[in-house]
């Protein structure tokens, strides 16, 4: 199975985390039957988000931790350069590269907790490419089934 995780999931999946996002990332990285498909855009967004002072304080994450997390992501993923296309996530066009990463990688699942990805037009667009949109808890259940 090919899975694209969005920025929000990856931010919640640092080594200091113990929640479902971290468990999902570990399961994907440990099982060669699954491919984690990310793009330079997504990894860059994770680095930016984790560097926000309020978030880094909340997560108690250091610049070294952030660097380590980004290095780990690059090591365990297949990097995809997303294509360009028409706008999909109309409420937040900055999310389009995430959708196009999933499309470009041939992903089966786009995993996100961001409600913008659950808009009917985004779901319909993803379905045209046989991509299911689900959150980390649903994805964990799918992997455990």
Describe the structure.
- The protein has 145 residues and is an alpha/beta fold.
- The chain has helices at residues 7-11, 20-30, 40-51, 53-59, 63-76, 96-105, 120-128, 136-144; strands at 2-5, 35-38, 77-79, 109-111, 132-134.
- It has a five-stranded parallel beta sheet with strand order 3-2-1-4-5, with helices on both faces.
- The model has no long low-confidence stretch (mean pLDDT 95).
**What assembly state would you assign to the polypeptide chains in this entry?**
single chain
Low-confidence spans: none
First CA to last CA: what distance? 13 Å
Number of helices: 8
Alpha-beta classification? alpha/beta
Q: How many beta-strand segments?
A: 5
Instruction: Please indicate the percent range of residues in DSSP E strands (runs of 2 or more).
Output: 5-15%
The whole-angstrom Rg is: 14 Å
Mean pLDDT: 95
Proportion in helices? 40-55%
- Largest β sheet strand count, sense and barrel closure: 5 strands, parallel
Q: What spatial form do the alpha-carbon principal axes imply?
A: globular
Strands across the major sheet, in which order? 3-2-1-4-5
Order of helices and strands: EHHEHHHEHEHEH
